[in-house]
UniProtKB/TrEMBL annotation, chain A:
It comes from the Bacteria. The keyword Iron-sulfur does not apply. It comes from Mycoplana dimorpha. Residues 1-21 form the signal peptide. The keyword Transport does not apply. InterPro entries: SBP. Coiled coil: none annotated. CDD domains: PBP2_polyamine_RpCGA009 (cd13589). This is Putative spermidine/putrescine transport system substrate-binding protein. Keywords: Periplasm, Signal.
UniProtKB/TrEMBL annotation, chain B:
One of its GO terms (cellular component) is plasma membrane. One of its GO terms (biological process) is transmembrane transport. It is a multi-pass membrane protein. The chain crosses the membrane at residues 25-48, 68-92, 104-123, 159-180, 210-236, 256-282. This is Putative spermidine/putrescine transport system permease protein. It comes from the Bacteria. Belongs to the binding-protein-dependent transport system permease family. CysTW subfamily. PROSITE patterns: ABC_TM1.
Amino acid sequence: MRKTLAITAVAALLTSTAANAAETTLTISSYGGGYQEAQSKSYFQPFMAQNPGIKIVEDSSSSNAKLKAMVETGNVTLDLMLTDDSFGLDADAQWLEPIDYSIVDKSKFIEGAAGTYRVASDIEATVLAYNANEYGGEAPNGFADFFDTEKFPGLRAVWKYSASGIFEAALIADGVKPEDLYPIDVERALKKLDRIKDDLVWWESGSQSEQLLASGEASMALVWVSRALSVGEKGVKIDWTNWTSQTGYWVVPKGTKNKEAAMKAISFFTEPAQQIEFTKYMPYGPSNKHAVDSVDAKFKGNLPTDHLDTRILMDAEWWAENGAKVDLRFQEWLLQ
Amino acid sequence: MTATTNDRSVPVKAGSSRGFRLPPAFWLIVPSVLFLALFFVFPLLKLVAISLPDGSLEYYHQIFTTPVFLRVIGETFRVSLIVTVVTVAIAYPYAYAMAHGGRAVLLVLTIALLIPFWVSLLLRSFSWVVLLQNSGLVNDFLIATGLIDRPLRLIRTPFGVIIGMVHILLPYAVLPLYTVMKKIDLRLMEASSICGASWLRGFARVYFPLSLPGVMASAILAFTLALGFYITPALLGSPRDMMIAQMIAGQFNEQLNFGLGAALAVVLMVLTAIAFGLFGAVRAALQMRGRRTGEA
């Protein structure tokens, strides 16, 4: 018995080293769910088909904290990670490899999509979604109506995260022009939020935001566009008058052994063909400017990149610098 | 009761006076000690080290000078205390019925207790959301019967947090109580009634003191577990009911401030240890009093 076990173990070891010798294994982490499935179908599998020497292993549930801990302990097992706006800025240089723009073509991206340490994968949005059954024929028109509980009564669901765009939404509703948002006037935003505080419900996961909208518990919500669309058959509609953009970014952890392959993968994932394919499965817009106009018809009209004119671009640099302080004030306000 | 405490202290003293010769049974605990050292003590020390960058106490200073943190810590202990009292108050009669209600009652109550115990905590918290939300079953029912015309705010309130936490902690409180109560000789109650005591008096003077070790054990267990609750207050409470575990998670996952998160975790641990010590002191005081009244 013991002998067979030992033989199997040795055999397993031999085959795995043999496999490693033949190809590079690229470990990629994304956010799981339908989002990652879409990436797998439009990015990962075509990439493997084209590069037989590179095998992609998927990990789900990206976490900036995990990446940071990984680099700090010197045990980097990820080669490529999908992250959000809050990470991959110049301030995060100690944990990331700079993007190699000799491999990735910098000129193909839309504005703001190519940074020193990150490259946008897709343009996402936090939108005002509302339950049309609740309001009959009337539809809210922008963030001002989100804060108008007389005209549009009912609970409002908002992400419990200071950098979710809620401060921006409050200021826009209070009459601030998008170009004058930064630096954020925190106290003014909180004063505006005070007016609807009793009508706010906070969500902490995408599924929770869906549940709040679908059950009718919340009449309005600031949610990710994919979540709003997936409860569309429950009467949930999107008002694109004002929306804040969120972005999915590719980053490469510092110290990865497969840096070049990772850069090659980024370059491939952001090609028009791949990004157009991606829009078949997810309502997120491409970051490649040559793909924006040729997106798949399925979500046409509901892709963030179809509404770039009303987008409120969040200043990630400002948030990176002031986020911790604002968050503390936000927590304090929540407790009041 | 006096006898049991004496019994317990005897072998400890005898063992320690024997010097360096280890009893053979010692080797039985080696695997668990190794396991704890590797997977508990070592990471714990790492955590403490992260909270003290270059030996600096800045994060602790920040915690004790920032009202937000102090308020959340205070709130955590306040909620945990309320939850503990409510849980033990519900668990006590439940355990009593299990211990003395006969086989059929025991079977039904055990099943009712353990089946939810096997369901994941997240799922149970979500179920409360479905039941208690404004558009949930309870409110729908009350509105349909005409008892109320606007939904009651049952979740996103302290009430929601308490109900969810009590439900999850109930088995932890019932089981230690049941073990203690099962061993209480009911003939003592008969004896007290023969001596002329009413049932209530007998309960207060005989049964309840004998069940106190169970009450203490279940209170300690419920309280310590309550301090670390995370998902339940997040789902069933309003932000005003935030508990410290949510804050620790926020520092790690959102703010990426490992140092501050680790310092908060250490503070929670130290405060829990202090609370534990206080429980121990109360328990010792109760036992002393019990011994004195026993002698009198």
